Amino acid sequence: MSSMTFGQKTFTPTPPDKGSFPLDHEGQCRKEMVKYMVCLRTNTNNNSACREEAKAYLDCRMNNQLMAKEEWSKLGFGDLETKVKSEK
Amino acid sequence: MLFFRLSCQHLLRTAYGNSVALPRQQFVKLQFHTSVLRSLKEQQNVKETAGWTERQKKLRSTVHYVVATAVLTIGLSYAAVPLYRMFCQAYSYGGTTAIGHDADKVEKMLKVQDRVISVRFNADTAASMRWNFRPQQAEIKVVPGETALAFYTACNPTDVPVTGISTYNVIPFEAGQYFNKIQCFCFEEQLLNPHEQVDMPVFFYIDPEFAEDPKMETVDLLTLSYTFFEAKPGLKLPVPSFVKVKQ
């Protein structure tokens, strides 16, 4: 089916930078996910307001071997990290 | 005309044995005429044969040129396919992206606060896929340059483990080149045990260059659509070439 779209615009999917997330079968990070979803709902789905919760979820994933450990600045959370450091 | 008359007279004389008197002047003229004509004819013959070989040579060289042009054209059309592919990869022309994003880009990118983009989420399953697959949020408001997290949920209501594999799509197509996924759950087989439910996150960002593209000026809504297929042995999913198939 995709071969018959000659001349039409086609979409080329790109690979994710860090590959695929392993599935969280045991639901170890479910609490963080729920917190993030609650935050989104209270802030009318505004992503900028819920970055702390997103960072917490990814932190949980890293701690439970569900994600490769990465520096926060490489994941786009560099500003949050500096804020935390300055508060400490 | 004179020649004709003279030749007729000559013929008559030879036929009737000199009874037709040909004046001497005219006879000389006749002789001169025939010899001149003969030499002219000879010259013309030589020229004709010489001209014919010259023309043949020219013809042959033209044929050579034409055949060479035809061979060159056919060769170029065959060579154009890999050459074009290399050109596209080098210059990211027509939506094909350069292989691999820079990890430094995520570190150094600055967010563009005034362009708020709504990203809507859509979830689909193939007709024979028995999972229940849906997004956890209908939409998220993102700014370019900021990383965002979104969730999908998949549930396996059957009594047998089912393996799924997914692919995704971004609409509008031109915005797809700015949509970069850091980590997601696509293109790799995911196994769900019976009666199991999992959360599947997508961690992505929109390239800050989105704000500078004049074609994207009126684009405020992006739709990310995931489709899950059942990964049966022998399933031929149109997976892109960069995906390594798990053994």
TrEMBL record, chain A:
Cellular component GO terms, alphabetical: mitochondrial intermembrane space
GO biological process entries: mitochondrial respiratory chain complex IV assembly
Compartment list: Cytoplasm
Region (Disordered): 1-25
Keywords: Cytoplasm, Disulfide bond
Keyword Transcription: no
Keyword Cytoplasm: yes
Family, similarity comment: Belongs to the COX19 family.
Protein name, UniProt field: Cytochrome c oxidase assembly protein COX19
Highest classification ranks of the organism: Eukaryota, Metazoa, Ecdysozoa, Arthropoda, Hexapoda
Automatic annotation (TrEMBL), chain B:
Topology relative to the membrane: Single-pass membrane protein
Record's keyword terms, sorted: Membrane, Transmembrane, Transmembrane helix
GO cellular component, one term: mitochondrial inner membrane
A family per Pfam: CtaG_Cox11
Compartmental location: Mitochondrion inner membrane
Coiled coil: none
Domain of life of the native organism: Eukaryota
Function: Exerts its effect at some terminal stage of cytochrome c oxidase synthesis, probably by being involved in the insertion of the copper B into subunit I.
NCBIfam families: PRK05089.1
This protein's name: Cytochrome c oxidase assembly protein COX11, mitochondrial
Organism of derivation: Zootermopsis nevadensis (Dampwood termite)
